[in-house]
Amino acid sequence: MDPTIGWYQPEQIGRAQKLWSQIWEAQLGMENMNLNNSNPNLENKAPEYISLSVTNNFDQKLGPVNKPQNNVIHSNNGLGLGKRKRENKASTYGLNQNVQFLSDNSGLAPWRNRDQYTPGVIGLHEEIEDFYKYMSPRPEEHQMRNEVVQRIRSIISDIWPSAKVEIFGSFRTGLYLPTSDIDLVVIGNWEKLPLWTLEKAIQRQRIAMPDTIKVLDKASVPIIKLTDKETEVKVDISFNMSNGVKSAELITKFIKIYPSLPFLVLVLKQFLLQRDLNEVFTGGISSYSLILLTVSFLQVRQTHRQTIDGVGAHYSYRKKTV
């Protein structure tokens, strides 16, 4: 486990954990020194790891907030660590360097409303239930997002009265985190996608935060990205992509078939978010792929339990395991 991102339980913290963390960091430092000696252009190379010198503060419902210390030297033998592309308020990078945050609850797990969980897998089940209840959107949050959609829908209706605005993605299925964006698709008849026309209309109405409106017209799926000024909720707008709506309908059906699906998905989405693995363009996995993987796991598990008691000679990991 990478000690910069692993989240140790209190019973795992001790001399052995501290020793192996120091060995791991020392080995990483030696590798960087070797690379630095053999490659004169290393300073131009993208950083391969994140600085451990951070101070962690907790933001309720968003998780640990990492802030660089003022007196930190962001270099290692000439290797510039650089800055992250964007601040991730849920990041757990460097958390294990502050043992005082791990020795007790310290507000890092605000969903824990019990003094003690049942030992073993039952306790994990109980905590997942508490986590889901805590992270699930409240009626006020849902209404806030609906108002964002309504503001954008009003602008689109003024320009193209016959156009139809559909919601898809996590907001439509209900499987969204507080940091998740809103996915919208505009259905209409155009010879050329009117990305810039809509961008100018949004600029005129001033519903987006300054400098957050971006038109990605060269992407495989051209979209407009913006951040709502009143709520700071991020929005992605695409055109004539009906597949997203169909995918949301499929996920809604899966939720009815597998009641445990939302619980597992929210835990996994938060797990990936904390490690910056929730965006495809940064090397992560999309929410839709994550949900399909979880559905596949539940399907295989259900079939396996119905046909075989335990793992026997007839069980094929190659065919049935995700």
Number of helices: 9
Oligomeric grouping of the chains: single chain
> What fraction strand?
5-15%
Instruction: Assign the structural class, choosing from mainly alpha, mainly beta, alpha/beta, alpha+beta, or little secondary structure.
Output: alpha+beta
Q: Shape, please?
A: globular
Rg (CA only)? 23 Å
* Major sheet description: 5 strands, mixed
Biggest sheet strand order reads 5-6-9-8-7
Distance between the termini: 21 Å
Q: Secondary-structure element sequence?
A: HEEEEHHEHEHEEEHHHH
Compute the number of strand runs: 9
Q: What does the average pLDDT come to? A: 77
Helix proportion range:
40-55%
Low-confidence stretches: 35-85, 308-313
Quick structural overview:
The chain has helices at residues 15-38, 121-135, 139-159, 170-173, 195-205, 243-257, 261-274, 287-307, 317-320, and strands at residues 54-59, 63-68, 75-76, 79-80, 164-168, 182-187, 214-216, 223-227, 234-239. It is an alpha+beta fold. It has a 5-stranded mixed beta sheet, sandwiched between helices.
Molecular structure report:
It is a single chain. This protein has 322 residues and is an alpha+beta fold. Helices cover 40% and strands 13% of the residues. The protein has nine helices and nine strands. The chain has helices at 15-38, 121-135, 139-159, 170-173, 195-205, 243-257, 261-274, 287-307, 317-320; strands spanning 54-59, 63-68, 75-76, 79-80, 164-168, 182-187, 214-216, 223-227, 234-239. The chain has a five-stranded mixed sheet, sandwiched between helices. Strands 1-2 form a two-stranded antiparallel ribbon. The longest helix is centred in the N-terminal third of the chain and has 24 residues, at 15-38.
